[in-house]
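Q: Hi! First time doing this. I have a protein sequence and I read that you can turn it into a structure. Is that right? Here it is:
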Amino acid sequence: MFKIENFKLSRRFILLAGALSLALPQLAIAQSWPTKPIKLVIPFAAGGTTDILGRLLAQQLTKDLGQNVIVENKGGAGGNIAAEFVAQSPADGYTIMLASGSMLTVNPNLYKKLPVNYSKDFVNITNVASGPMLLSVSAKLPVKNLNEFITYAKTKDLNFGSAGIGSQVHMAGENLTYSANIPATHVPYKGESAAINDLVAGQIDFMVGNLTAATGFAKTGQIKPIAVTSAKRVKQLPDVPTVAESGIPGFESTGWFGLVAPANTPKAITDKIYDATVKAVNSEAMKKSLELNGLTPVVNSQKDFDAQIKAESANWEKVIKGRNISTQ
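A: Yes, that's right. Below is the predicted 3D structure, encoded as structure tokens:
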């Protein structure tokens, strides 16, 4: 006689077998990954810090993974255009994105309508690197330090450039103008390099850009470095004081860049990407390149990265509402 216990056992066996039938192909794919080139999407134009870091990382990952990692720039809308492209790509590990921190923490709180849901459409892999920002002014401005800049800004209608609305360059500029209590008009660009080029040309007055992208122009005198946003001075520009020591105590603003993949990318694959990134960032070649560009390696775990994004998102939500910053 057939017993209920046997039925329950059979049903459990069928469910287990079904789960295994779904998991095994994914496991097999993950074990063989990668078998073709990987696309690393950069959400801003070439020449900016995200692009520079992305190309350094792609070069090292190519060596470690045994497949070409190809950089593809898709700038615009504060990174949202690239985000939509990646979110709609197959979740197979062959399309990943190096996002700026602002995309994951600012955009969801700033844009009223987004083509993606940053908390649901991506799996966060790791924060790769971080770095300070540099307040620079046009060579045409008659100021040499932060106090002179603030005094001058209070009497003029100055404007500042950024890599786009909501970018960390934009938010660093908003942070500075708010802390210094000066009025300024934001001018968004499709990428950091375009904004810096206009700063060099004198088309905009100042910018709080990533140190990586701005240092070369500062050293050649094409722009005037006023202050760095880190807690301490940086090796690249040792004579440039910090914002904190120049008159705004406690001020600090750091940009960072993290790897994400489309949601539902198998964990076995994202684990491989994480392991390869750790190896890449810890290689002597990349360590030297990061230091040269004013960047500090991070490579935190997915759990810590998720927690970082959550905490910073809550903070930026308060800032954006408090300062009434909008995309209009």
